[in-house]
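Example S7 (structure tokens).
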């Protein structure tokens, strides 16, 4: 609209300039004629001069009218700009209101989804509790197993300090707890647990590994035998964690994975594995007693080392080929 108004004004200025130039040329021409014919053109000049003034008055009137039109157009433009500005303010206000309404809708939708997820999670947990057996892990056998695990680092420390008498006493105590936890689990009601089937062999592996490493450091057991035994035990422990993950129903979260009250699998050691544990305990026990009783480097100890290596290899193979090493537990509904 502004562009059209400016164009219109320029056309008027051009027309006015053209008419003014024409009148100026005509005046010059009349003057020359009067100078040339002073007597004959007098009446003509008067008439022409009168028409010229009348024409100028008409142009002035037209200019005034055009000014009025321009003023009206300017006023209309201002009104239009004001209306557009008000319309813009209204649009911005409407957008803000719409945004607030949409935000409230999204907030309600989010709250509904979170509530629905929590309810679904609770239902899933209830279903899992029905499927996965939950048991009491605070039994006497399990406490004895944890005692052996806790004392293993201290036993290794006193061996490195050459305190073999105290180490031998702790070794005997650990052996007694090993015998007791099995007897109590078999004969006392409510003391057997699926968790204990993992915890008991793990406690034995930690104790044996600690004794082998510390005695090897003291030069009483060959390094190659210790590496073989420790590698096998580490592989068995890692397999236990894998079995726990495989047997745990979804969702497989860390809190549920390390929740020992959820029994998901039961370990069934092979017969050769039990024999291997007995041979290893016999080896570390006699080796630990050798500095006290004075039979270090006895040939019998060398024979026990060879027997221990053989049973370790055979027990590892038995775990690989046996199908009944472990079983996944599911509660009968």
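Recovered sequence:
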């Amino acid at each position: 609209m502004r562009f059209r108004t400016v164009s219109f004004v320029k056309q008027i200025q051009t027309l006015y300039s053209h008419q003014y130039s024409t009148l100026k040329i005509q005046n010059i021409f009349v003057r020359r004629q009067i100078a040339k014919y002073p007597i004959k053109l007098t009446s003509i000049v008067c008439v022409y001069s009168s028409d010229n003034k009348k024409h100028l008055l008409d142009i002035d009137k037209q200019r005034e009218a055009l000014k009025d039109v321009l003023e009206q157009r300017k006023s209309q433009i201002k009104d239009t700009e004001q209306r557009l500005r008000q319309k813009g303010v209204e649009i911005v206000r409407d957008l803000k209101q719409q945004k607030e309404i949409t935000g409230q809708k999204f907030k309600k939708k989010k709250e509904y989804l979170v509530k629905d997820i929590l309810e679904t999670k609770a239902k899933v947990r209830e279903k899992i509790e029905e499927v996965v057996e939950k048991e009491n892990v605070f039994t006497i056998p399990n406490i004895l197993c944890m005692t052996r695990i806790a004392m293993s680092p201290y036993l290794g420390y006193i061996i490195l300090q050459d305190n073999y008498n105290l180490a031998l006493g702790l070794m005997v105590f650990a052996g007694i707890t090993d015998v007791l936890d099995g007897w109590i689990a078999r004969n006392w009601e409510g003391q057997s647990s699926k968790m204990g089937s993992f915890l008991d062999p793990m406690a034995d592996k930690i104790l044996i590994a600690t004794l082998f490493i510390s005695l090897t450091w003291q030069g009483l057991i060959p390094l190659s035998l210790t590496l073989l035994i420790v590698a096998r035990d580490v592989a068995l422990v890692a397999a236990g964690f894998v079995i726990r993950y495989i047997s745990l129903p979804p969702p497989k979260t860390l809190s549920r994975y390390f929740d020992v009250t959820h029994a998901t699998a039961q370990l069934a050691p092979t017969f050769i594995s039990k024999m291997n544990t007995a041979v290893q305990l016999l080896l570390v026990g006699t080796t630990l007693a050798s500095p006290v009783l004075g039979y270090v480097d006895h040939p019998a100890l060398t024979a026990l080392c060879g027997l221990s290596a053989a049973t370790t290899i055979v027990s590892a193979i038995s775990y690989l080929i046996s199908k009944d090493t472990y079983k996944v537990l599911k509660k009968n509904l």
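Notes on this example. The beta strands are 133-134, 262-263, 265-267, 326-328.
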